[in-house]
Design a protein that fits this description.
2 domains, globular, Rossmann fold, 20% strand, alpha/beta, five-stranded mixed β-sheet
Length: 331
């Protein structure tokens, strides 16, 4: 049928690769680099095949020096390029923290608007793959707290493609965190054509009337399993995928809480001083008079993510999510 979109079944890895492919083809100012991101296609093979297609000048490997990767990207962005840099793991972003906070996030303000930093910093994040230390971190709150940065976390192949294209086209620096646990765990029909999803807009995945649940990244899938359990006992859950951590979509969250009167937040990062805490503040500030129960966080413990043997005790399960949903509704 003429005009019909061609769709392909993609994993998150394939959707991100497709988004990068589209932007490399469309915009000659886009360059991609990072540790093993060129020839090997990255640890998780997200950029596989792109160097062969676009050449070593546009898709290339970097030294094992995160601060240098980000610092060089800043220089590229200020010089008219749109760099997409890959840091190998979540816990390896910390050596680049100084560059991100002191320079990347501040350059637009420091130059009084003279310079923009159209740069994307990609990295896999989160636990659940039995990895080593520094390979299972969830540092979204660290970056969302820094003025000048946007922070994005997709949960599906469709959103990964649309959000990444929007991030690359943004004139602001974007921290793009990819939930490694579901890199290949989810398959979905995604348009082969270019499309973008606006940053800063949450998505209501399931409408409900009894309780609002907000999550993002790999936790969306765990929440969906908990929703099946809730439905069996007659609890109607409204599930919202946050998608963009900053800027956060206060309006969608507040409107949902006003409708349901109850609020549960699910995220795998440590609970204290977290995105979950920010979401609770939104509930109290924007919808306090509508709350029929205290907002509840279902989050990671305030400890380092355990190594493989102890990791299952740390990760959030559908049972734990359902328990807090039911307890909140019965409050």
């Amino acid at each position: 049928m003429e005009g019909e979109q061609k769709m392909s079944v993609m994993t998150i890895v394939q959707a991100i690769n497709n988004a990068l492919d589209i932007k490399l083809e469309e915009d000659k100012s886009v360059v991609i680099y990072g540790e093993d991101a060129g020839k090997e296609g990255g640890v998780f093979r997200v950029t596989e095949g792109l160097q062969k297609k676009y050449g070593i000048e546009r898709v290339f490997d970097s030294p094992l020096a995160e601060s240098a990767i980000v610092g060089a990207g800043l220089g590229m962005a200020l010089s008219g390029l749109r760099p997409v840099v890959e840091l190998q793991f979540d816990g390896f972003t910390y050596p680049a923290f100084n560059q991100i906070i002191s320079n990347v996030s501040r350059m637009h303000n420091r130059s009084r608007g003279m310079y923009k930093v159209p740069m994307v910093i990609r990295f896999p994040y989160g636990g659940g793959i039995n990895a080593l230390e520094h390979h299972s971190e969830s540092p979204e709150a660290l970056y969302a707290h820094i003025p000048g940065l946007k922070v994005v976390i997709p949960s599906t192949p469709h959103d990964a493609k649309g959000l990444l294209i929007a991030a690359i086209e943004s004139d602001d620096p974007v921290v793009f965190m990819e939930p490694k646990r579901i890199y290949r765990a989810i398959k979905q029909e995604v348009s082969d054509d270019k499309f973008s999803i606006p940053l800063g807009k949450a998505k209501v995945l399931t409408e409900g009337t009894d309780v609002t649940v907000v999550a993002f990244g790999a936790m969306i899938r765990e929440c969906q399993k908990a929703l099946v359990m809730a439905k069996e006992v007659g609890i109607s859950v409204e599930l919202i995928d946050l998608r963009t951590i900053y800027p956060i979509d206060k309006e969608t969250i507040a409107e949902s809480i006003k409708k349901t009167g109850r609020f549960v937040i699910v995220a795998e990062a440590p609970e204290s001083f977290s995105v979950g805490a920010e979401l609770m503040a939104i509930a109290n500030e924007e919808a306090f008079n509508y709350l029929e129960a205290p907002p509840k966080r279902v989050m990671g413990f305030d400890t380092i993510v355990p190594l493989a043997k102890g990791e299952p005790l740390y990760m959030i399960t559908p049972d734990r999510i359902f328990y807090e949903i039911e307890r909140t509704v019965k409050f």
